[in-house]
Amino acid sequence: MPLRSDLTLTPQKLRPRIERLFELSAAKILAIEKTWRPEAGTPVFTVKGRYTSRGWTEWTQGFQYGSALLQFDATGEQRFLDIGRRGIRERMASHVSHIGVHDHGFNNLSTYGNLLRLMREGRIPFNEGEKEFCELALKVSGAVQAARWTKLADGTGFIHSFNGPHSLFVDTIRSCRSLAVAHRLGHLLMGEQDERISLLRRLVEHGLNTARYNVYYGEGRDAYDVRGRTAHEAVFNTASGVFRCPNSQQGYSPFSTWTRGLAWAICGFAEELEMLDTLSTHEFEHLGGAEAKADVRRTFLKAALATADFYLQNCCRDGVPMWDTGAPNLHRLPAAYLDRLSDPYNPWEPVDSSAAAIAAQGLLRLGNCLLATGEKRRGSRYRQAAFTVAATLFSEPYLATNRRHQGLILHSVYHRPNGWDYVAPGQKVPNGESSMWGDYHARELALMILREARDEPYLTFFRCVG
């Protein structure tokens, strides 16, 4: 296994690094708040250390204001709660009703969800009006997300990406949190002729189809079927509802693995496993009852384990992956480069720290799921892997200690094929820059571990609904 887990790491041992991270994080959030012009759009990634926008879809603003709420959660500093609240009121309403994206779980759970969770946990005073404001936003967000529905030949379906009704993105498994929360709030989607559409059913069907079409299991599906690898996009014939081929928008090819997509799968399936374990059999009656619930759990666990194992085999020994497992210049790197520490300054292919931050959270959640069912050995293995990745990211050269740099975690990659990432003079590939999603997920990972070190309640997306 390329990743070499540090078996001595614990949440308590990581606490000094995490506290330093949040100390640096405070100045960076304030710098963005001071310099960002809302009319410029949404901050996406840094260029020369300063956050800039890149029009594709508006999927990162929730991370901007959600980061402030995570900062408040970690430190108790009121000014960050104020930044998060103000951003939600002034900037997030359009994201609740955005019919053109598959990113509701990113934008709205990071903002309305975190704010509601803080209230339910007693971290901020209870306010009935604010509670109802957040709950209504989360209900609408989940229904709008569920309405992006493509029906398949077998009668099931999936939430299609912004590319159109033919397109199933692996990313969306984590965005399904919006459907889960809306369902837990008692909401549903109303369709034609007042059809009452279950949000839980759509979440389950989307997850099962993601596991079926975007995740590979080494079972002979095609010539490139390696257990745990993922395809960024699955493409369907919308007239017949039949699967046609894998594809990749942000990775190198359909038959290699874009590692941030892989990370979304690890994290998304692990989170949905945690949520499934809190649902009653009664809630699954319209889906087939206890047997159906068990089948869904087995499929989600199979996908989570396969993708987690593939990640651990295909990252560098410190837990940071290259941006794609089949990137064209990997053969130019030193022999057995995965057995070495990651090198973000190598001249051939970039690493992706944002993939590491997302994957580490998924590994930690997967490990906790296994521990909860008595699988101590496997559960501990994934937890220690998560702590090892966290230790790497929360230290240089990944932690951005330069206070003039607005990013928190360096060496993130956005869209390598489109050439959107900044390449500094004297460098051949992108490095030294940050992304809004990478910084947010590093903060979320850090907060998860910090809360465990403090013996505080376990952080889940569905704590916002009790």
Indicate the percent of residues in helices. Answer: 40-55%
What summary fits the major beta sheet? 3 strands, antiparallel
Q: Class by helix and strand content?
A: mainly alpha
Order of helices and strands: HEEHHHHHHEEEHHEEHEEHHHHH
Oligomer: single chain
Strand order of the largest sheet: 5-8-9
Determine the CATH topology.
Glycosyltransferase
Beta-strand content: 5-15%
Query: What's the β-strand tally?
Result: 9
Count of individual domains? 1
Uncertain runs are: none
- Distance between the amino and carboxyl termini: 39 Å
Basic shape? globular
Estimated radius of gyration: 21 Å
CATH class membership = Mainly Alpha
Mean pLDDT: 97
Describe this structure as you would to a colleague.
The mean pLDDT is 97. The protein has a 3-stranded antiparallel beta sheet with strand order 5-8-9, with no helix packed on it. Strands 1-2 form a two-stranded antiparallel sheet. It contains 15 helices and 9 strands. The protein is mainly alpha-helical. It has one domain: Glycosyltransferase. The longest helix is centred in the first third of the chain and has 25 residues, at 11-35. The protein starts with 10 loop residues before the first helix and ends in a 13-residue tail after the last helix.
